[in-house]
Design brief:
- The chain is mostly helical and 359 residues long.
- The protein folds into two domains: 89 residues; 252 residues, no CATH class.
- The protein has 13 helices and two strands, in the order H-H-H-H-H-H-E-E-H-H-H-H-H-H-H.
- A two-stranded antiparallel ribbon has the order 1-2.
């Protein structure tokens, strides 16, 4: 067998490790043998045939792996549902509104959820982008968020980690469209009007690589999806985790000393909503916790913006009318609240439909 054929066979065996363990135990040896025969046949026809074989396998591999993981996850969910239905049938009690098993959430989980909002929110409260860029508070707090996301990944994505995920994704999306003239990164100095682009995603990429190296498994990602399947409000947590950054952007043109008070109050209210979410045992209470935290924070932000833009605090400008602030903020609140509520509503509808299917 030629060197190219041997490398192709070894690469295929490496790709087999990405399939679920149960699938590998049953089919990996057979698949490896069939592929080695295909490689030997292609080697007799030349390097082009080997190249076509390799490209074909690489092209079909993601879909095959995805199908097997989806089938494995669905099988696990079916087993979980079967256990739940059997216990319900034996007890003849209505389905509870409780999403999880009802065990109390450890207080260190609650603390981690609060810190996901407090650290970036407080760091941004009085920060204004300087020129040239030296954004220690911005990147320092983002580093904390990335470390929190890494810890959550390694731990199998518990509920509090979804807050870190939301902030990390929004920050990377925002930074990819930002120019930071004079800022140095890994020996590169950003020029004027040079956007971060793909560099903004390096932090999340590093988290993914480190998490895979530490866990050596795709099981945490499977738990990420099963966690959302069992409790759709975790998607609401992803959105909720972006709110400290959203608040900072709303105060973008407001002077730092003035906005700091309202920003700090806003992030404290958001943290209170996240803590209440972690301590709630029903989907309804979790949804109400997030909406209450959003509403209280939004009211504080709206008051700060309205007082600033409608008062004598803007030199050289006539005061705006209160409705110029209240109406847009009310519309924006309705949009964000709807996004927060949609996952929870879908989860509730699924739970209501479950007894009918069982019957």
């Amino acid at each position: 067998m030629s060197r190219t054929a041997r490398l192709l066979s070894r690469g295929y065996r490496c790709l087999l490790h990405f399939y679920p363990a149960s699938f590998r135990a049953e089919f990996a040896a057979e698949m490896d043998e069939v592929f080695r025969e295909a490689v030997a046949d292609a080697a007799q026809r030349g390097k082009r045939a080997l190249a076509r074989l390799g490209l074909r396998e690489i092209g079909t591999w993601p879909g095959a792996v995805g199908r097997e993981w989806a089938g494995t996850l669905l099988a696990r969910l079916d087993r979980q549902k079967g256990t739940i239905m059997n216990s319900e049938a034996s007890s003849h009690e209505p389905v509870p509104a409780r999403v999880d098993a009802g065990t109390p959430v450890p207080w260190h989980h609650v603390l981690l959820a609060a810190l996901a909002l407090l650290v970036p929110g407080l760091a941004l409260a009085g920060w204004t982008p300087p020129v040239p860029w030296h954004p220690a508070p911005l990147f320092g707090s983002t580093l904390f968020v990335l470390l929190g996301l890494l810890a959550g990944w390694v731990r199998g994505f518990p509920a509090w980690s979804y807050l870190y995920m939301g902030y990390g994704l929004l920050f990377a999306l925002w930074l990819s469209n930002v120019a930071t003239p004079g800022f140095e990164l890994l020996g590169h100095t950003f020029a004027r009007n040079e956007l971060w682009g793909w560099r903004a995603w390096l932090g999340l990429g590093a988290v993914a690589v480190l998490a895979l190296l530490l866990t050596r498994s795709l099981r945490p990602l499977a738990r990420l999806f099963t966690g959302v399947w069992r409790d759709w409000t975790r998607l609401s947590l992803v959105v909720y985790g972006t709110l400290p950054f959203v608040t900072w952007m709303l105060f973008d043109e407001v002077h730092a000393p003035y906005r700091a008070v309202f920003s700090i109050l806003s992030v404290l209210l958001l943290a209170a909503g996240a803590v209440t979410y972690l301590r709630s045992e029903t989907t309804r209470n979790r949804m109400l916790s997030l909406v209450a935290g959003l509403t209280a924070s939004w009211l504080a932000t709206t008051a700060g913006l309205a007082a600033y833009w409608n008062g004598p605090r803007v030199p050289g400008r006539l005061p705006f009318h209160w409705s110029d602030t209240l109406v847009p903020m009310a519309i924006a609140w309705a949009v964000v609240a709807a996004v927060l509520l949609v996952p929870g509503v879908l989860g509730l509808l699924g739970r209501l439909a479950r007894p009918r299917r069982a019957a």
